[in-house]
Design brief:
about 260 residues, Carbamate kinase, four-stranded mixed sheet, about 40% helix
């Protein structure tokens, strides 16, 4: 059973302070991910850009398009900063004992007007077959309409999920799940109740060029409708044992998103 797990930028960085890496939080998450790996869980890890890539991308307007020489310099800067955070994450995962296989999305990803159209998956498939743990991250991409753009980790997960067919997808952030406008946790979101819930969903604290919680939930609903049986959970990773518990012990934290 394959599981995709994203460590959100809100978890591993302080999104309110540029390039602020949460070293201890990441180390704790890595230890729990190793426990899951050691228990035989097959997984693909992704992470957000948080206060690294998002801040630079907003400054240069990379999401909207890249055309001028100055914008292309910004495009390269965003890629470099995203990779710098990725290196910190990889180091933490490796130190925990996880046999990581690093994947740079921008090396093969291509978009059309902001939509991811292609990305090489053969190395990822082979890595999973051999018991390795692929690691992807939010990155830049060349775009046939915009010149260049940003691809979020959720976008990459959606593309890969339709080809690798994971059974579970966990999106782990600093909050305990999806909340309504009264501050109450929403336990379960489906296509049937989304229209009722949608007006209650908010954005994202800090800088996030790829959209906040409402955007994330809508994208995940689209995905569960396309992949039969896929279960997605959005939950917090700041409490000890939460990540390992969800992966290994099948605990049910946060908000479940499913087709039914």
């Amino acid at each position: 059973m394959l599981t995709f797990i994203k460590l959100g930028g809100s978890l591993i960085t302080d999104k309110r302070e540029a390039e602020s890496f949460q070293t201890q939080v990441m180390a704790a998450a890595a230890a729990e991910l190793y426990a899951a790996f050691d228990a035989g869980i097959s997984m693909l890890i992704g992470h957000g850009s948080g206060s690294f890539g998002h801040v630079a991308a907003k400054r240069h307007g990379t999401m909207e398009g890249v055309n001028t020489p100055q914008q292309w310099v910004g495009f390269a800067e965003v890629a470099f900063i995203a990779r710098r955070l990725n290196t910190l994450v990889l180091e933490s995962l490796a130190e925990a004992g996880i046999p990581i296989f690093a994947v740079q999305p921008s090396a093969s990803a291509r978009c059309h007007d902001g939509q991811l159209q292609e990305m090489e998956i053969t190395p990822i498939t082979l890595a999973l077959t051999e018991g390795l743990v692929p690691v992807v991250y939010g990155d830049v991409s060349f775009d046939s309409v915009r010149g260049g753009t940003i691809i979020s980790t959720e976008t990459i997960f959606a593309y890969l999920a339709q080809r690798l067919k994971p059974a579970r997808m966990f999106l782990v952030g600093e909050t305990e799940g999806v909340y309504d406008d009264q501050g109450d946790l929403i336990a379960h979101i489906t296509p049937a109740n989304y229209n009722q819930i949608a007006p209650m969903l908010g954005g994202s604290e800090g800088t996030d060029v790829t959209g906040g919680m409402a955007t994330k939930v809508r994208a995940m609903l689209d995905l569960v409708e396309k992949i039969p049986g896929l279960m997605i959970r959005i939950f917090g990773g700041t409490h000890e044992g939460q990540i390992a518990g969800a992966l290994v012990d099948e605990l049910e934290p946060g908000t479940l998103i499913s087709a039914e």
